[in-house]
Every structure is written in C-alpha cells, then in structure tokens.
C-alpha cells in the first residue's frame, strides 16, 4: 500500500492511500481520516460512499466531515466510486462506467472484469483498513451521498450485523424504477431484474427491512428528486413501522453545500450508535 | 451582475456572481455566503482572500467556513485572486499573472491594464456588495490564506479604520525578501522597491503598525515556511508591543486541511470584533 499524502487535519491525519485490489483487479485509491484518538487505540469508523462522477477526493475536501469526526473520535473512510485505469471499461456518459460503479458486482461484459465494487467496499477494503490502521472492525457505520446513499442503504440491508447505524444524503432510493439505476443495473447485472433487487433500497426495505437506526436527508429543491424517489423509501419504512428519521430539508439542493450543512447531524447520529 | 449559482447552505445562501469590473477592466467572479440573518437586516462581513492558483471557488468549497459563519450570522466574501479572460496578460508560471494578483495595483506593462487587485478588493467589490446585498459596510473584517493572508494583512494596515479585525492562515509575511514576492512585486510595480513597501506586511508592521485585533496561524510543517517568513512578522509585532495572537500549529502544513482545522477559531475571533 502506497501513501499518496498525509495531512494533519483537526488534530488527526487525513491520508490518501493506493493499493492493488484483488477484487477490482486494478489499483484503488481511498481517503482515510484518523482522529487523534487513533494514536491511543482502535477507533470506530464511518464509511462515506460518494456519488456519481466522484473519486475518493470529493467528499474528503468538500463535505466538512473531519471537523465532526474529530470531535467524536471517529475515523472516516472515503472509497473511490469505481475501478480505475486505462484497461478498465468505461462509457462516454457520466452515469455509467468510471465514477459510476453503483456498488454492485458486475456479471456482464465488459464490466465484470473490474466492476466488483460491492465486494471491494464490503470485504476487501474493510479488511485492508482494519488490518493496517487503528480502526475497530466491530464499530462500523455507513453513510453516503446520492449513488453513495444508495450504496450505504443497500450495504446496510444486505450485510445485517455489519453496521451499527446507516444514514444517507439524497440517496437514490429506488434505482430499479428510475433513470439513475435501470440503465446501470442492466449493464452491470444483465436484464434479469431479479438480480437487481439487492441493489434497490426500497425493494430491500420492503423485503428485508433494517434493524439499525436510519437517518435520511434530502433537499426539497434537489434537482434530481425524480431520480431519487425519496417517497418510495419513506413509504416502505413507514409501512414496516421502523424507527427512522426521514427529513426533507427546505430549499436545499443536491450539492455538497447541502451535504456539508447536515454533516454534523449525521456524524452525531452515528456517534450515538457507535458509542452505545 | 449575473447570478452564476445560488445554493442553500447552513440555513443561508452560498452564491456565485459575475460582474463587469471597471478597475480590472474584465468580468470578475466572486463567491458570497449570506447567513439566514441577512433576510432580516444587514449582517457583518468577513473577507476571505485566497492564495496562489485559487479562484473564488477553492475556499468556498474547501475551507468549511460557512458552518461557522452561519453560526455567527456573518457573511463571507470570496473574491478571485486576479483578473481573468483571454485578453488578460498571463505568465506560464503559477506564481505570476492569473491566479497570482498579489492584491496590488500594477503599474508596469503588460500587467497594468487589468491587474488592479488592490482597488478591486478595497474599493469596487465592497461597494458592489454593500450596494446589492444585505451586508453592513460598517462591520467588516478580513482574513486570507498564503498570498491571501499577505493581502489581508496589507489591506488591514493600508486601510486603517476599514476593518474591525484581521487574521491570516500561513500568510506571506515578508514578500520583499522572498521568492513569493520579489519576482511579483518587481513585475507588477517595477524595480523601485520603495513602491513595494505598502505590500509587505512585515515592513508595514514596522512602519505603521496595526490598531485592530490580529490572529495568525501557520503550520509548523508548512512546506513553504521559507517563503512565508512568519518570524519576521512575529518580530515586528512583538517589537511594537501589539496585542496579537501568533500561533505555530504543530504538524500542520499549507493545505486546506490546515485552514479548515482552524477556521472555527478565526471566525469566532472576527465575530468578537464584529459584534463588539
């Protein structure tokens, strides 16, 4: 594993690291914020999954999360959103291929060779991080934005027992029914829609539910509301009578200005679960 | 004036605006954060001057200042660092020309036609902002990073009575003596070094002093310490017996991870002056 950069940040260290990935079959880069407390012993960790077009870097520099993670003594992981490299298949559109892995294991050509983002985020990267840094594998929570909110929700429901809490900023809630989802799930997983179900938060909520605390924020002026469909997840959560906090935030849009505004709430929400 | 974007952010609005500038003789773009309180009446304002290579955008998305400005009910202005446009003179090096205006009024060819950044930041942009937004011209403070810290310090000392407080992150403290300064001041202002004095914070501190509160943070691991020369400003401040808070922060470097870490302190410092 190569150290790309390490910067002192809020008393801790914001690092960027690169490693050969066996599951995506290419080099992968991720950001990791370790609070000062990690010098003394293992700290809990919050995963932040990013949205379309992002790398590991966007949220790391724009979401303002380190301030609150430092306050709570929590590590932050910022994975990339897709495999990278010249020999990795891509698509000219922003919403397929590089920067658009959708946190699934692709089964279809040409994607299957590298697009194994579920296994990367669910298995390989957690092992790498808990094996190399002072991070407590028994205290993990997860959040994400947009496509990353979709990833956070589906990982939390698909890996029961793994996370102590889950939240999302403007998540894609029902990708099997919308333009941010049908194209990509079809490309990566093929046209048998049964294979898509584990990657649709609304369908998973209806089928499996969730037994950890849930917080979701979406902006009432989000320019992509028709793609996100927060109403479908809300209906599924309420039908299940699950304790959850689903908020529509007046006037906010899809940007990092929205994410950063509510980051303090999300980190505090996860801290409560991680320290309970 | 054109609205480029307006995003809801921490209860207020992060806007980006473009306007024809008479002093720089080109279109200029700036960022303005208005807290929620600006809907009710004029709010105090903190100027943030950026460093080499930056536009209006870098600090606006990476410094995390809006969280604290919203908490304090303070507006933030993020000016650009130079004139822009195809007919604006430039230099292939990152530290001269576009992105490197050094907050001076150039007198030399080819720079003088557009590089009038002192007048832009000291006169034209304040008038534009106080004339068009709910910002209180009697309650202004100023900060900045690196070249922008130099700008904040020299503007504060060159315009007595204008600002209620001044701070800086890793400022260039003594540009007439270093590689971040001699080349640029020579190019913009000519080789008569008497003309450089108003644009050197250490020389101005020795000659004029300062009668408002001062806070300066610099990282002990800043990779540009030899260019910044914090020791020269510290010596000048202490020799004058001025009340000031000059801090060297252990382990921090020159990045926005450093700036964002101490932004809360700086905004709180300015708030105390702006609300007293």
Describe this structure in words.
- The structure is a homodimer of 276-residue chains.
- Chain A has nine helices and nine strands.
- With 276 residues, chain A is an alpha/beta fold.
- The first copy, chain A, has one domain (2-274): Rossmann fold.
- A six-stranded mixed beta sheet of chain A has the order 1-2-3-5-4-6, sandwiched between helices.
- Chain A is globular and about 50 Å long.
- The mean pLDDT of chain A is 97.
- Chain A binds chain B through residues 7-11, 14, 61-62, 64, 66-67, 219, 221, 249, 251-253, 255-258, 260-261, 264, and chain B through 7-11, 14, 61-62, 64, 66-67, 219, 221, 251-253, 255-258, 260-261, 264.
- Chains A, B: The active site is at 146 (charge relay system), 222 (charge relay system), 254 (charge relay system).
What would the keywords be for this entry?
homodimer, alpha/beta, 6-stranded mixed sheet, 3-stranded parallel sheet, S-formylglutathione hydrolase activity (chains A, B), hydrolase (chains A, B), carboxylic ester hydrolase activity (chains A, B), Esterase-like (chains A, B)
Give a topology summary.
The structure is a homodimer of 276-residue chains.
Chain A: E1 2-9, E2 12-21, E3 26-34, E4 43-49, H1 57-62, H2 65-72, E5 75-78, H3 117-132, E6 135-144, H4 147-158, E7 166-169, H5 182-189, H6 201-207, E8 214-219, H7 225-228, H8 230-239, E9 245-249, H9 256-274
Parallel strand pairs in A: 4-5, 4-6, 7-8, 8-9
Antiparallel strand pairs in A: 1-2, 2-3, 3-5
Helix pairs in contact in A: 2-9, 6-8
The total count of helices of chain A amounts to 9
Question: Could you name the CATH homologous superfamily of chain A?
Answer: Alpha/Beta hydrolase fold, catalytic domain
By oligomeric state, this entry counts as: homodimer
- Strand segment tally of chain A: 9
Going by helix content, strand content and strand pairing, the class of chain A is alpha/beta
How is the CATH topology of chain A named? Rossmann fold
Q: What is the gyration radius of chain A calculated from CA atoms?
A: 17 Å
Helix content class of chain A: 25-40%
Coarse shape of chain A: globular
Biggest chain-to-chain interface with counts: A-B, 24 and 23 residues
**Can you tell me the number of structural domains of chain A?**
1
The CATH level-2 architecture of chain A is identified as 3-Layer(aba) Sandwich
Detail the poorly predicted runs of chain A.
none
State the end-to-end distance of chain A.
33 Å
- Could you spell the SSE succession of chain A in H and E letters? EEEEHHEHEHEHHEHHEH
Q: Tell me the β content of chain A.
A: 15-25%
Output the strand order for the largest sheet of chain A. 1-2-3-5-4-6
The largest sheet of chain A, given as strand count, sense and whether it forms a barrel, is: 6 strands, mixed
Highest CATH level, the class of chain A: Alpha Beta
The pLDDT mean of chain A sits at 97
